[in-house]
Amino acid sequence: xxxxxxxxxxxxxxxxxxIVADVATLKRxxxxxxxxxxxxxxxxxxDTAQGLAEELSxxxxxxxxxxxxxGQRTVKVVSRKVEDQPVMSLLVAFSVGLVVSRLISR
Length: 106
Known about the structure:
The chain has about 110 residues and is mostly helical. The chain has helices spanning about 5, 15-85, 85-105.
């Protein structure tokens, strides 16, 4: 029996077994395609997430470095002011402490 005789029965109709086999093959092919698409989508999402995480990490490091430098400059300025005007610094510190204690005690 050759291929053409397998596909058609004696009265010229398509063989049901061939249709079932073709549908099964089609289902397997579609499942493979869907798995490939899903894997590609997940890989793309993971790559995007890793890129964003690295970018956020770099941004956070830059912000931390900037804040650290500003803090160091502020400490130097305040230290210089305290050294230049010690009596005024004591009066300001005492006044701030008094105001804060009044606010807290209410």
